[in-house]
Structure formats: structure tokens, C-alpha cells
Amino acid sequence: MKILISNDDGYQAPGIVALYEALKDLADVEVIAPEQNNSAKSNALTLHSPLYVNRASNGFRYVNGTPADCVHIALTGLLGYRPDLVVSGINNGANMGDDTIYSGTVGAAMEGFLFGIPAIAFSQVEKNWTHLESAACKARDLVLQMSSQKLIAGNPWLLNVNIPNRPYGQLGHVKLCRLGRRHAAEAVITQVSPRGDTMYWIGAAGASKDDADGTDFHATTQGHISMTPLKVDLTDHESLSYWAQTAARLASKA
Ligand code: MN
After folding, report:
1. Which residue of 61, 100, 104, 131 is most buried, as measured by CB atoms within 10 A?
2. What is the pLDDT of residues 35-45, one digit of tens each?
3. Which pLDDT value is given to residue 186?
4. Are the C-beta atoms of residues 75 and 82 closer than 8 Å to each other?
5. How far, in Å, is the centroid of ligand 1 from the Cα of 133?
6. What is the DSSP letter of 207?
7. How far does residue 14's CA lie from ligand 1's centre (Å)?
8. C-alpha dist (Å) from residue 235 to 16, 68, 232
9. For 100-129, what is each residue's pLDDT tens digit?
10. Average pLDDT over residues 131-140
């Protein structure tokens, strides 16, 4: 088995080091990750400046680009082979509900999925790296089980996994979830720069709005590991018929 690892927190982040250490004896593992923290870069690709790849002393390769850049160039020439699995993370903080739209951790995994390769995004729920080793052990368990159940060879899939920051023995089971929803983000934070200009800082993510039973928010609050299969098609299939009538009406008046 060949595994490509990336992340969005950067190649020096504790989460990607722990993930590599946990997976390195299961497969041929390569790490190609952003040089800098690229959290919330989603699926962004760098089109208007060149990308450079360097190798760190631990063997990880790092790129002056986004998470999706890393996976994209890995799969389109840099690796020279097709990995069986793309694994992203372990992220410093939750990627649940609406976070998945913005997440660079999910973006890296999704890039693999778009190339037809099974992919998993791993995140820890709290943003402080506590119990990172137990999260890495769970990531290893999951990859091992999927490999032994031949899930990695078939059709591609994209899984989003969030792991509570708990000791290994206190983690609940893996619970299949739908994404919850968050409230809109908190207000932008303004400050005045030393030169007198107003600076704007994007505010914190909103609190959970839909954290009902069955959501990732609910499962992780209960100590379980949430696992959500994601798709890329953003079409609102349920409203297609509604919009068909509306679109016909708009067309007739145009
Ligand atoms: Mn991140």
C-alpha cells in the first residue's frame, strides 16, 4: 500500500508528524505538505505563481502552496506513481459541519478524491494537540481496518473524521454521522495598525446550530469519533424541481 499524507497546518505541525509516525510501518508513506499554515484554504490552487518543493531533514517534502496544491502536484507528476490512499491531518481543531467548506485539511483529501483516490481527513476536536498520540493511534486503527477489509482498492470515497481529545482508552467508537451546521461566524475584529490603518481579522467560527443526534457535533460531544462520507456535488437536488418551474417562469419573462 502507498499512502500520501498532507495537511493544512504545515509540514512542521505536530499533527502531521504524529500521523506519519502512526502510518509509516503500514505502507510506503510520503509526506508532501504546505510550508506555512494554510488552514481555511479549502480547495484553493495556486495558478499565478510558481511552486517550489523542498525536502526537510526528516524526509517530509514541503511546498510554498496550499494543501490542494500539494496533493495536486504530487498526483500529477511529483510522486511518479499513484498512491492507494490520501490521508490529511491530523488537523489542529475540529472540521465539523460548515467547517468542511473552508477546511484545508478536507481540501487536501478532496483533491485526492477528485483524482479518484480514496481519501480521509483527520482532525482533533480541540485546538491544543492534547492526546494527539491517541488520535494518531485511532487513525492508524482505521487505516489498518480499511486496508484489511479491502476498502481501499475499490471505488474512491472521501471521509471526514473528527477525534475528541481524549486518552485512547476513553475514546468512544467510530460513529457514522451527517454534518451538523454552525451559526454564522462571529463578528470581524478590527484593530488599528501601528501606522494608523484599520486592520480586519476574520472572527471565530460560529457555535454549533444543528448539533442534533446523528451529527458530527453530537457524536464528538459524546466522546465518539465522528465519520462522515462527503461528496463533491454541491447541487441542491431536492430543490431542482422547484427551480425548474421558477427557471421556466424567468425564461418566459426574459
Ligand atoms: Mn488547520
Report:
1. 104
2. 999 999 999 99
3. 93
4. yes
5. 17
6. P
7. 11
8. 33, 22, 9
9. 999 999 999 999 999 999 999 999 999 999
10. 98
What pLDDT shows up at residue 243?
94
pLDDT at 138 over 70: yes
Grid coordinates given for 55: 525536502
Q: What's the gap in Å between 194 CA and the centre of ligand 1? A: 28
Separation of CA 183 and ligand 1 centre (Å): 20
- The residue-averaged pLDDT of 176-201 equals 97
- Identify the CATH number of the domain in which residue 129 sits: 3.40.1210.10
Amino acid present at 253: K
Report the sign of the C-alpha dihedral through residues 35, 38, 42, 46, in that order. Answer: negative
Expressed in angstroms and rounded, the spacing between residue 107 Cα and the centre of ligand 1 is 11
pLDDT score recorded for residue 251: 83
Measure 247 CA to ligand 1 centroid, in angstroms: 40
> What distance in angstroms lies between residue 8's CA and the mean position of ligand 1's atoms?
5
User: pTM for this structure?
Assistant: 0.96
Number of domains in the chain: 1
Closest listed residue to residue 16, CA positions, set 5, 24, 26: 5
Does pLDDT of 224 surpass 70?
Answer: yes
Residue 138: inside a domain, yes or no?
Answer: yes
Q: Are strands 208-210 and 189-192 parallel, antiparallel or unpaired?
A: unpaired
Average pLDDT score over residue span 50-55: 98
* Residue 195 belongs to a domain: no
Q: Which domain holds residue 114?
A: 2-181+208-252
3-state class percentages of the chain: helix first, strand second, coil last, to nearest 5: 30, 25, 45
| Terminal CA-CA length for the chain | 56
Domain presence at residue 190: no
**How far apart (Å, rounded) are the C-alpha atoms in residues 175 and 216?**
8
Domain annotation covers residue 66:
yes
